[in-house]
């Protein structure tokens, strides 16, 4: 059923615009994908990449592409999506563009749990890799519950600004705890922790992809399904209630989804901050605040951001690497300050 | 018929009870206005009707059913609420915002139906916003914005419309503009309208029924000519008002007033006074 005649041009135009943005982002991701396949310690020319992909490469080329680079690229894309959608949801819940799973301590909570997990199982993860997201979820979830409880007041429910402030404090607390713990770690675990905190995509084999993918396949469509709820939450608590939302219930569900996305992403990608901040913000500049567009477009921008950062990190200081999280932070930190300054106007 | 029955309601915040054992009924198809001084509990009452605050005791009945026992979406199909402070998120057009009024009718993934769009377009038309429907809310004036919010409430397709101070922050012309729109909706569409107003003359002129509160209690309720009396205004607001009849509605309005038991209004500006 076509209902276009009932809608004004602006709505139809926006839909077309969203389709265009998605197409352009998709092309950009494909380009980054190809560049990323080419770059690394051993450079492969585009021709070699194509011949390897189509099955005519040497064993060494196949190993590099399919066992090292491809899973890493896929994880960068997936983690970028997860973090960006998590940020979009958090910003929707708290009605504040400064919310980001990294800033409010969810990533740190997940990281702490991952660290404890690794120090028990050491570096040989084996099949326990699938347990990793659950541990991360436990850590991120605990952080979220603490944040929620501290920002909840009986008469007012959860005040958005209190949620952010408590989150920042929780993040600082967990990071401090991690530093204390590092003093007791053996050198190997210490090194892992350092790279994890810097946001290096460390989980670069297919089992990590398999561990992360199911979470995103379930949670991102679920978030998309909740886009009209997020739209209504954006209008303020009273209006949201008036329109028939069960405010606290929806908030809790959406917070759980945001935690699930961030924790599962972060446990394989390392502590990459700011993606959840930047991607939704750019998206809103491009298309406005309707969440049926914000969620998918943020996901693609997040993917592009992390994939781009990881690729740049591998190119800049060859043969060593700069962690993707550091590259994102170089863009993200000033962006955060810019947003802060703009909010004060 | 009563649209809303409020029975023995007790509401408050953790430390303070604002309203205790309050009972009143809101008549159907009429415009009812709640008046009273600051802190009298009128906003608390309207927030309780709107289920933003929960009654500790007693209940609010909508068509005979307690709202505490109703599904919140079902309430949203019968009663639309315009809160005092609504955030207008950046990057939303008038049409988009009004379309959110259809939220109670949306199914999980379902996109909007032809009926949804008909309601939205009707709401935009009846509020006179056709030429603005593509415009971002952020570019509209306060008065226009209030119209957009009213349009969103109308798109909800409810019999009852509850508004908490819909004219606050608007200039005189826009205040009247909003009230005339509500009057039109009541006369033409038979909507039941309940609102809180600060301006007594507006309240009297546009209401069929008035509820006057002070210190969490109802002092009096009834048609404007019964509520807007010299004695009542003294009891409610502590003022001595000079009343006359509104040339437009025939309801009582005040010309001017002074504080009860005070002569501070004297001398008048026209007196010749020495400059000290």
TrEMBL record, chain A:
<dbReference type="GO" id="GO:0022857">
    <property type="term" value="F:transmembrane transporter activity"/>
</dbReference>
<feature type="transmembrane region" description="Helical">
    <location>
        <begin position="102"/>
        <end position="123"/>
    </location>
</feature>
<feature type="transmembrane region" description="Helical">
    <location>
        <begin position="129"/>
        <end position="151"/>
    </location>
</feature>
<keyword id="KW-1003">Cell membrane</keyword>
<feature type="transmembrane region" description="Helical">
    <location>
        <begin position="20"/>
        <end position="42"/>
    </location>
</feature>
<dbReference type="GO" id="GO:0005886">
    <property type="term" value="C:plasma membrane"/>
</dbReference>
<keyword id="KW-0813">Transport</keyword>
<dbReference type="Pfam" id="PF01032">
    <property type="entry name" value="FecCD"/>
</dbReference>
<feature type="transmembrane region" description="Helical">
    <location>
        <begin position="163"/>
        <end position="185"/>
    </location>
</feature>
<feature type="transmembrane region" description="Helical">
    <location>
        <begin position="322"/>
        <end position="341"/>
    </location>
</feature>
<dbReference type="InterPro" id="IPR037294">
    <property type="entry name" value="ABC_BtuC-like"/>
</dbReference>
<feature type="transmembrane region" description="Helical">
    <location>
        <begin position="205"/>
        <end position="224"/>
    </location>
</feature>
<dbReference type="GO" id="GO:0033214">
    <property type="term" value="P:siderophore-iron import into cell"/>
</dbReference>
<feature type="transmembrane region" description="Helical">
    <location>
        <begin position="73"/>
        <end position="90"/>
    </location>
</feature>
<keyword id="KW-0472">Membrane</keyword>
<feature type="transmembrane region" description="Helical">
    <location>
        <begin position="290"/>
        <end position="310"/>
    </location>
</feature>
<comment type="similarity">
    <text>Belongs to the binding-protein-dependent transport system permease family. FecCD subfamily.</text>
</comment>
<feature type="transmembrane region" description="Helical">
    <location>
        <begin position="253"/>
        <end position="278"/>
    </location>
</feature>
<dbReference type="InterPro" id="IPR000522">
    <property type="entry name" value="ABC_transptr_permease_BtuC"/>
</dbReference>
<keyword id="KW-0812">Transmembrane</keyword>
<keyword id="KW-1133">Transmembrane helix</keyword>
<protein>
    <submittedName>
        <fullName>Iron complex transport system permease protein</fullName>
    </submittedName>
</protein>
UniProtKB/TrEMBL annotation, chain B:
<dbReference type="InterPro" id="IPR017871">
    <property type="entry name" value="ABC_transporter-like_CS"/>
</dbReference>
<protein>
    <submittedName>
        <fullName>Iron complex transport system ATP-binding protein</fullName>
    </submittedName>
</protein>
<dbReference type="InterPro" id="IPR003593">
    <property type="entry name" value="AAA+_ATPase"/>
</dbReference>
<dbReference type="GO" id="GO:0005524">
    <property type="term" value="F:ATP binding"/>
</dbReference>
<keyword id="KW-0410">Iron transport</keyword>
<keyword id="KW-1003">Cell membrane</keyword>
<keyword id="KW-0067">ATP-binding</keyword>
<dbReference type="GO" id="GO:0005886">
    <property type="term" value="C:plasma membrane"/>
</dbReference>
<dbReference type="InterPro" id="IPR027417">
    <property type="entry name" value="P-loop_NTPase"/>
</dbReference>
<dbReference type="InterPro" id="IPR051535">
    <property type="entry name" value="Siderophore_ABC-ATPase"/>
</dbReference>
<dbReference type="GO" id="GO:0006826">
    <property type="term" value="P:iron ion transport"/>
</dbReference>
<dbReference type="Pfam" id="PF00005">
    <property type="entry name" value="ABC_tran"/>
</dbReference>
<keyword id="KW-0813">Transport</keyword>
<feature type="domain" description="ABC transporter">
    <location>
        <begin position="4"/>
        <end position="240"/>
    </location>
</feature>
<keyword id="KW-0472">Membrane</keyword>
<keyword id="KW-0408">Iron</keyword>
<dbReference type="InterPro" id="IPR003439">
    <property type="entry name" value="ABC_transporter-like_ATP-bd"/>
</dbReference>
<keyword id="KW-0547">Nucleotide-binding</keyword>
<dbReference type="GO" id="GO:0016887">
    <property type="term" value="F:ATP hydrolysis activity"/>
</dbReference>
<keyword id="KW-0406">Ion transport</keyword>
């Amino acid at each position: 059923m076509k209902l276009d005649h009932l809608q004004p041009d602006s709505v139809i135009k926006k839909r077309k615009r969203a389709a265009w943005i998605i197409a352009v982002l998709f092309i950009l991701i494909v380009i980054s994908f190809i560049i990323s396949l080419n770059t690394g310690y051993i450079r492969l020319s585009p021709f070699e990449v194509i011949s390897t992909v189509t099955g005519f490469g040497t064993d060494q080329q196949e190993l590099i592409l399919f066992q090292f680079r491809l899973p890493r690229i896929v994880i960068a894309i997936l983690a970028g999506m997860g973090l960006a959608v998590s940020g979009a949801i958090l910003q929707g819940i708290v009605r504040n563009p400064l919310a980001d799973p990294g800033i409010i301590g969810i990533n740190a909570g997940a990281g702490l749990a991952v660290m404890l997990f690794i120090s028990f199982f050491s570096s040989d993860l084996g099949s326990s890799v699938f347990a990793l997201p659950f541990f991360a979820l436990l850590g991120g979830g605990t952080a979220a519950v603490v944040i929620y409880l501290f920002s909840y007041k009986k008469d007012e429910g959860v005040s958005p600004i209190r949620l952010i402030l408590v989150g920042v404090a929780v993040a600082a607390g967990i990071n401090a705890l991690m530093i204390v713990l590092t003093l007791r770690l053996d050198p190997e675990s210490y090194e892992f922790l350092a790279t994890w905190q810097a946001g290096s995509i460390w989980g670069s084999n297919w089992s990590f992809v398999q561990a992360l993918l199911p979470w995103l396949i379930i949670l991102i469509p679920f978030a998309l399904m909740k886009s009209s709820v997020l739209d209504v939450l954006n209008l303020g608590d009273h209006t949201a209630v008036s329109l028939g939302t069960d405010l606290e219930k929806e908030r809790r569900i959406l917070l759980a989804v945001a935690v699930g996305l961030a924790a599962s992403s972060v446990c394989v990608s390392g502590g990459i901050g700011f993606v959840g901040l930047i991607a939704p913000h750019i998206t809103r500049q491009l298309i406005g605040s309707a969440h049926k567009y914000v969620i998918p477009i943020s996901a693609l921008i997040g993917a592009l951001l992390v994939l781009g950062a990881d690729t740049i990190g591998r190119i800049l200081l060859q043969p060593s690497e700069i962690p993707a999280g550091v590259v994102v932070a170089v863009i993200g930190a000033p962006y955060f300050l810019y947003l802060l300054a703009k909010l004060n106007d | 018929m009563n649209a809303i029955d409020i029975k023995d309601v007790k509401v408050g915040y953790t430390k303070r009870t604002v309203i205790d054992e309050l009972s009143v009924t809101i008549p159907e198809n009429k415009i009812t206005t709640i008046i009273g001084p600051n802190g009298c509990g009128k906003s608390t009452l309207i927030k309780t009707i709107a289920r933003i605050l929960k009654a500790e005791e007693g209940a609010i009945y909508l068509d005979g059913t307690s709202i505490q026992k109703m599904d919140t979406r079902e309430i949203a199909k019968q009663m639309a609420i315009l809160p005092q402070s609504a955030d207008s998120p950046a990057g939303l057009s008038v049409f988009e915002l009004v379309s959110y009024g259809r939220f109670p009718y949306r199914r999980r993934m379902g996109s909007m139906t032809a009926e949804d769009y008909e309601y939205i377009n009707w709401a935009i038309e009846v509020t006179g916003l056709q030429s603005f429907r593509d415009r971002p809310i952020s570019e509209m004036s306060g008065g226009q914005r209030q119209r957009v919010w009213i349009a969103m409430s109308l798109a909800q397709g409810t019999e009852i419309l509850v508004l908490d101070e819909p004219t606050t922050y608007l200039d005189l012309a826009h205040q009247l503009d909003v009230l005339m729109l509500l009057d039109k909706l009541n006369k033409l569409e038979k909507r039941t309208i309940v609102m809180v107003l600060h301006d007594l003359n507006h309240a009297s002129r546009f209401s069929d029924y008035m509820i006057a509160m002070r210190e969490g209690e109802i002092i009096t309720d009834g048609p404007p000519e019964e509520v807007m009396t010299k004695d009542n205004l003294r009891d409610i607001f502590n003022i001595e008002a000079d009343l006359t009849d509104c040339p437009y509605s025939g309801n009582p309005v005040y010309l001017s007033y002074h504080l009860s038991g005070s002569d501070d209004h004297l001398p008048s500006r026209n007196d010749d006074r020495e400059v000290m």
